[in-house]
Specification:
With 386 residues, the protein is an alpha+beta fold. The protein folds into two domains: 179 residues, no CATH class; 130 residues, no CATH class. Helices cover 46% and strands 15% of the residues. The protein is built from 13 helices and ten strands. The strands form two sheets. It has a seven-stranded antiparallel sheet with strand order 6-4-3-2-1-5-10. A three-stranded antiparallel sheet has the order 7-8-9. Strand 8 and strand 9 form a beta hairpin. Helix 6 packs antiparallel against helix 7 and helix 12 packs antiparallel against helix 13.
């Protein structure tokens, strides 16, 4: 009996030792979200997110980055334009990661996550598996699947019987385009904002829900700060690892902004239409320049919608005024038939309706494009009466 009791006690002791070791192993893991402040270049203007995993038992301190791509790919530019460039998760030591941001004077904020031992092990195991060559690649999407949304999905993946609460971190009605404008305007990148506004489809103007708003690093950081899991704050600590020492961009002159340049060009193309200097030859030339340029732009936007894998560029309403068939019309402006007249009249009104809708939902169309759109509507209308 004594031997049986001793054996049971030994088994119990060993089991408790094993449980204690398992708990120690999981408590040795610390997982943090790293949020990097925006930089001066286009690729960095929205900031960056990465995941830090410290395993003191294994003596490792690794940063996982889902924003990596191979610039040496011989088809890099073709794949990038067509939305077929594969991004991948990479890993780097924490000191090397921090050194880069110190060098460029960009800030890094670390949020230590309060996670259960099981959740920490699960995330670590997932990253170990995801970093493997056969698993690490994914098709990047600017709004819906990027280096920040990947981390959002890892951190907020629901566990069984777990309640996750994230209070609203954005105002009701905020859109993807609103968020992008905030960063681009702050960086004085007005021409870049115009280019992005031309490319983005109507999906960028849909109100975001709370999780969708975390597609940018600063908003994921806000979401982590306010989130609670089983009524416990998800953020256990917040540390400024690197101070942001970048200089504030100088405000650009109004005379080099898209609004001024496009307004000036639109006015110059309108001059031949004025009654007191009306010139048929100049008027035809101005109309051809207008129709060819908007037609070429329309063909490009249509290609970015239908010929690429960029989900963000689909359903582009700019195609109403940048109409691809304007190329065809440009060669028929001196031989307009009744069908063309009817089309021009309808399309003139369509552009005016688009302007009215855009003004009602501010941000759908870049403000710099309104002069060109008004010119296009006016010329359609005048040509419908020839």
């Amino acid at each position: 009996m004594k031997k049986l009791f001793a054996a049971c006690f030994t088994v119990y002791f060993l089991l408790q030792l094993g449980f204690a070791k398992a708990e120690t192993d999981s408590s040795a893991i610390r997982i943090s979200l790293l949020t990097c402040t925006p930089g001066a270049e286009l690729y960095s203007v929205f900031g960056h997110s990465a995941l830090r995993v410290v395993d003191s038992a294994a003596g490792t301190d690794i940063v996982y980055n889902y924003g990596t791509f191979d610039f040496n790919d011989p088809d890099f530019y073709t794949k990038f334009v067509r939305g077929k460039l594969m991004y991948f998760v990479s890993q780097v030591s924490y000191p090397d990661f921090i050194f880069e941001y110190q060098y460029f004077k960009r800030g890094v904020v670390e949020q230590v996550l309060h996670l259960s031992p099981i959740k920490k092990k699960k995330i670590q195991s997932f990253l170990f598996e995801n970093i493997r060559e056969e698993n690490r690649y994914y098709k990047y999407d600017f709004l819906y699947d990027n280096c920040t949304t990947r981390l959002r999905d890892i951190i907020f993946q629901k566990e069984e019987n777990s309640i996750v609460e994230v209070p609203m971190i954005v105002e009701s009605g905020q859109t993807f385009r609103d968020h992008l404008h905030y960063y681009l305007n702050r960086a004085e990148m007005k021409w870049t904002a115009l280019g992005i506004d031309l490319l983005l489809g109507i999906g960028a103007d849909m109100p975001m829900d709370n999780m969708e708003s975390m597609f940018l690093p600063d908003f994921l950081m806000k979401g982590i700060s306010s989130a609670r899991v089983d009524n416990v704050k998800l953020e256990s600590d917040k540390i400024i690892q690197v101070k942001d020492l970048q200089s504030i961009p100088l405000q650009s002159s109004f005379f080099v902004t898209p609004l001024f340049i496009i307004s000036l060009l639109s006015f110059l193309l309108l001059i031949p239409s004025f009654g007191f200097i009306k010139n048929t030859t100049l008027g035809l030339l101005a109309d051809r320049i207008l129709f060819i340029s908007t037609g070429l732009l329309g063909i490009f936007l249509l290609f970015m919608w239908l010929g690429t894998d960029h989900e963000s560029f689909s359903k582009n309403i700019n195609l109403i005024w940048a109409f691809p068939l304007n190329i065809f019309f440009s060669f028929r402006l001196n031989a307009i038939n009744k069908r063309m007249q009817q089309f021009f009249k309808i399309w003139s009104l369509m552009i005016l309706i688009l302007i009215a809708v855009s003004l009602s939902f501010l941000g759908m169309i870049n403000m710099a494009l309104y002069p060109l759109m008004l010119l296009m509507s006016y010329r359609y209308w005048m040509l419908s009466k020839k």
